[in-house]
Amino acid sequence: MEYSCWFACTRGCEGRYSIFGVIYRCPKCGGLLDVQHDTDALKARGPAGWIQLFDRRVRTNEWPYGSGVWGKKEWVCPSIDNDNIISMYEGHTNLFWAERLGKEIGVSDLWIKLSGNSHTGSFKDLGMTVLVSVVRQMRAMGRPIRAIACASTGDTSAALACYCAAADIPSIVFLPKGKVSTAQLIQPIANGALVLALDTDFDGCMRIVQEVTAENTIYLANSMNSLRIEGQKTVGIEIVEQFDWEVPDWIVIPVGNLGNVSALGKGLLLMKELGLITRLPRIACAQAAKANPLYRSYQTGFQEFQPVQAEQTLASAIQIGNPVSYERAVKVLRQLDGVVEQATEDELADAAARGDRTGMYCCPHTGVALAALFKLVDRGVIKGSDRVVVISTAHGLKFTDFKVGYHSGTLREVASRHANPPVELAPDVQLVRDAIARELDRREAAAANCAT
What we know:
Blueprint: E1 5-9, E2 33-37, H1 39-43, H2 47-57, H3 73-76, E3 95-97, H4 99-105, E4 109-114, H5 124-140, E5 147-151, H6 155-167, E6 171-176, H7 182-190, E7 194-198, H8 202-212, E8 218-220, H9 226-232, H10 234-242, E9 250-254, H11 259-273, E10 282-288, H12 293-299, H13 326-335, E11 339-343, H14 345-356, H15 364-378, E12 387-392, H16 400-408, H17 429-451
Parallel strand pairs: 4-12, 5-6, 5-8, 6-7, 9-10, 9-12, 10-11
Antiparallel strand pairs: 1-2, 3-4
Helix pairs in contact: 5-6, 5-9, 6-7, 9-11, 10-11, 11-13, 14-15
């Protein structure tokens, strides 16, 4: 069976455009483009056939199908040559059963999708493997693309630089100066990208990169380019696959530019259309209160949308006031009966610390998602009997300064209730024994209070 895909307008304008062309918006209305698939051809295999195929490919060594993205190649980008695929065998990230944290908040079936357990430490790898692979094929076809560029608050630039380095394609990243963690800054530097630190915020970087990539020799890699969405949509498919093709009740996801929730919904809706699932989960989007345009729009029933001037937040990767994928995200939220919640700086830092105390190592954006989860549980929107998956979008090691600041009590607007600084002592065995005894007594007393 031949499978195919193409670009089409998200707003419904007529027209099909090749995924190997340099095009980001509908020529008729200016709206974003989506990748559409020949679903009639996909339906011919049948749900059982797809499940059998996908299960057989999990973690195999058959190139490139052992990747969590390319194991679903027919649903992602069927027309690309395998020889042009650039993959780090991304995907297949762990679903962590957050048993202890779930008991604390009254949700017995709580899971964390550890999307940061990937090659560059974030879920952005899922989309970048598709985009860079397509550009590699475009260059092989003779397209005059000299480099790939993106605006980023950290994770996108890391993924772009890494995959471009593997593909031997120059990469250019636009970062807001002084607003990216050291770990995130050094990743594209180490992978050889041209790093431009601009004295502006992400939205300012986004404006400039769109102007630069209007010249067709530099290709745009931000999530307004829906090739990224195609790879990222596999996270929802993978979650269902990991539950033996059963659908959870809720998926909670931190959002900024809104490409990730758009992708999550797209994968789930495709599964339902092809008959692999019969129901859809509900989605909860979590935003930092200092960068919350989607939350504000949700308060009006999505009748109004106003970009905001995003303020500095610990959740730097979602410090975005004018999200490019707003229209896509709203469509998904309406189809999946979604909700939007926000978290203050204190709430997100506290939630991340609570997660860490139960075996995780949360980035601040996962803290935003956990804080939103706590609020939704407290209000009864999410029930204690629901199966809930929180998507952790990046590895906590990329945000060491955030962790150090929390435990040293130096973060602004954060109370650091769970701070755990090291105990400094002289090298005296009795002092050490006394310190251990005091701490164990304190912990045992706290556990007894919780039990009562």
